[in-house]
Design goal:
Blueprint lengths: L10 H18 L9 H9 L9 H30 L1 H15 L3 H13 L4 H7 L13 H30 L4 H21 L8 H10 L1 H14 L5 H6 L11 H11 L3 E3 L3 E3 L8 H27 L1
Antiparallel strand pairs: 1-2
Helix pairs in contact: 1-4, 1-13, 2-8, 3-4, 3-8, 3-9, 4-8, 5-6, 5-7, 5-13, 7-8, 7-10, 7-12, 7-13, 8-9, 10-12, 10-13
Family: Belongs to the CobD/CbiB family.
GO molecular function, one term: threonine-phosphate decarboxylase activity
Organism: Haloarchaeobius iranensis
């Protein structure tokens, strides 16, 4: 195993190994059950914040500051302790932490399932969509269901995969402990937003704004990846014209880029329409879009491994 002059295992090597372990676990094992999933544990920690407060914005600010730091600090402590025992033990724990904060296999599988069911069992497709998108699917047509699956795959590529992976890769050259903590912090910020960041919840205002800030770069990096994987670099520029349609400052980038690359209409009824002149994705086109998301995730993983190695 590569070591430095003092015989200590190189941090870049252990960081790259952690990335490989995380991706390998995602591909071979997938998501652990909720009772064993650290993100589910964090969700139970957030749940008590979701209630009426006398000063909801203040409570929300405190939660947005404290809870992600608690998650990051816990991960940092465990990785640091393992690294003191053995550098490769630290790499394993960091890889487990990164695996808990990233998810590609389940995202792709669930999106493909919705696409498949949209042609076989419309009721089952509407039910399956609940695992991907927070919208009322009761009246969605097959085309709108496929649209939602493609949109969710593109958006979650940025939020649930590229963002924590990029944080890990950028911080890995400095410290394996810091890299794992960074990925945990990013995932915690996104989880807070997914649970609290709604207009109907004043306590979630700070979480939503923090998530907007943290996901700014990952959303654009994901759009760039999607455009390159599709072999349609101009899709990124076409997507810009549709951004005003999307309330989020970030999710429109990967969704719009994929809409342009596939030449399809992606739509959330009553909220936005991307590429309005096209038709909703056919089953085959929707499947191709989801697989392009998967391929973009693979490219992101390779790039993250290279950056972590530097």
């Amino acid at each position: 195993m590569p070591t430095d002059a003092a015989g200590v295992v190189d941090v870049p090597m252990t960081a790259a190994a952690a990335v490989a372990l995380a991706v390998g676990l995602d591909l071979l094992v997938g998501e652990p059950p909720n009772r064993l999933h650290p993100v589910a544990w964090f969700g139970r920690l957030v749940a008590p914040v979701d209630r009426a407060w006398n000063r909801p914005r203040l409570a929300g600010v405190l939660a947005a500051l404290a809870l992600p730091l608690l998650a990051a600090g816990t991960v940092a402590a465990v990785v640091r302790l393992a690294s003191r025992v053995d550098p490769w033990a630290g790499a394993v724990v960091a890889g487990l932490a990164l695996a808990a904060t990233t998810s590609l296999r389940m995202l792709v599988a669930e999106a493909l399932r919705v696409v498949r069911l949209s042609t076989e069992d419309i009721a089952a497709a509407r039910e399956a969509l609940r695992s991907l998108a927070g919208r009322d699917a009761g009246e969605l047509s097959p085309g709108l269901l496929r649209s939602a699956a493609v949109e969710s795959a593109a958006e979650n590529l940025a939020d649930g995969f590229v963002a924590p992976l990029a944080a890990f890769a950028v911080l890995a050259p400095f410290s394996l402990t810091l890299a794992a903590a960074g990925a945990a912090w990013v995932k915690a910020v996104n989880t807070l937003d997914s649970m609290l960041g709604y207009h109907s919840k004043p306590v979630g205002w700070a979480s939503a704004r923090l998530d907007d800030l943290v996901m700014w770069l990952p959303a654009r990096l994901s759009a760039l990846l999607l455009a390159q994987v599709a072999g349609r670099p101009r899709a990124l520029w076409r997507a810009r014209q549709w951004l005003p349609e999307v309330p989020s400052p970030n999710s429109g980038w990967p969704m719009g880029t994929l809409a342009a690359a596939l030449e399809v209409r992606l739509e959330k009824p009553g909220v936005y329409v991307l590429n309005a002149g096209a038709s909703h994705p056919s089953p085959r086109t929707a499947q191709r879009g989801v697989l392009q998301v998967a391929s973009s995730g693979v490219v992101a993983t390779i790039l993250a491994g290279v950056v972590a190695w530097l």
